[in-house]
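Quick one:
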Amino acid sequence: MIKLDLSVPVDSPVRRQFNLIYQFLERNELNQHLSKVEGVLVIKPESIVYDDCFAYVFDIARSSPELNSAIDDLVRPLNTRKPQEKDCVFYSGGLGCIEVKHIGIVQKDGKIVSKWGDDGPIVRHPLWAIPECYGNRVRFSRMPSREEVLRLRKKFVR
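Output:
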């Protein structure tokens, strides 16, 4: 069973540090700083193959706001706080804000793998080791099938 601490670290020094790192540093400096944070591993310093976190998670080269919204509608939310390996984790804003800001994949050890920013790194990190701008609420879902994602991609990405 995967154990995740779902409590949001409000006013966390680590999350403030991520905000500064994410907002103000150039990409090469971002990778250097991230690699020094305990529990965080930069898997791929720059990923130009995937244009954002949705494209990475669903293994498509290009994403779009319409596709991201459609995928959000497609996913099957879990009614559990115990996600399984390869489930999706969706980060969204505060109360009343359901717009998904970031997405990642749950790993066997409870860490998350996600892509940070356009042309940014692919990072393996604890659930809440993310910039605050990615949100302070999470929900989990099973990964949509490859066929479902490709069907939506055909419909929304030109």
